[in-house]
Amino acid sequence: MEFIDEQYTVITNNSLVVSEKFGSADVYGQNAKSILNKATGFIKAYDFTLNPYRGCQYGCTYCYAAAFSPNEKMQNDWGKWVLIKENAVEVLEKELIKWQKRNSDKLPSIYMSSVTDPYQPIESKTQLTRRLLEVMLEYKPILVIQTRSPMITRDIDILQRFKNLRINMSIPTGSESVRKDFEPQTPSIRARLNAMKKFKTKINDLTGYLPKLSITITPLLPTLLEEQESFIRELNFVDRVVIQNFHASHKRSLIASTRDTAIDMKKKYEWWYNNEVKSYQLFKNKLIKIMRNVEIKEGQAGFTYE
Ligand code: SF4
Question: Which residues contact 199 (CB under 8 A, 6 or more apart)?
């Protein structure tokens, strides 16, 4: 998740009833009126965003999507619930058929996902994202998948059949201790890097199309000084690295909706945040110095498909 652009009128909080527990998370199920939503804001270059779920079990401290929870309790409980859009596969099929009729000479461009993680833990059970991929394949979309989950490698068999695919793996810090502070419920940095490397080792010209691979260091969280260079060296196998300030470019609107837990956590990292502009610049300089044949992009420019 990186951007606010979901049409939150799609699902209301009427009659939300917990249907099951998955781990410690409450799981809700509901039908959505639409699954392809017009992309706006940071990712307006895409035709659509696609969010198979609402809510996210990863519960990152800085996730502003929490502000758009169905009610205040769920906002406070961000990370402890997920809503499955149960009819998503059927709705997607209908919407793509409709779109294709109107745009026979153009491939749809889709950003999955903008306000949830399509490979959060519940996906291991529902396989909803996988089923949506199967539907999308037929329409040959330009597809960007944003996740922080190694579970994406489960779907290599399908993903390698997409000709126009970019995978954005979110790794906001190179330090495990920092990750555990800001996003304690997420997979380790090592697991995410290994997942991305797997695409390179498993896909070749004979098996399918190798996707474009990005690491999105967004928001750029602190990485311990002694770990910065080794972390950056580890990224040298991808096509693109994206950095972005801690919501700074969005000014008041997003700071207002960033969770207090992230604001509090920033205090622990005063050595970084007391001079955030300089910390950002020093990290960026190291990227430029160490990266070889890797695009380095900042902010919005990093989230394009091309
Ligand atoms: S992975 Fe983290 S940032 Fe992305 S939607 Fe989930 S809680 Fe928010």
Answer: 153, 156, 159, 167, 210, 211, 213
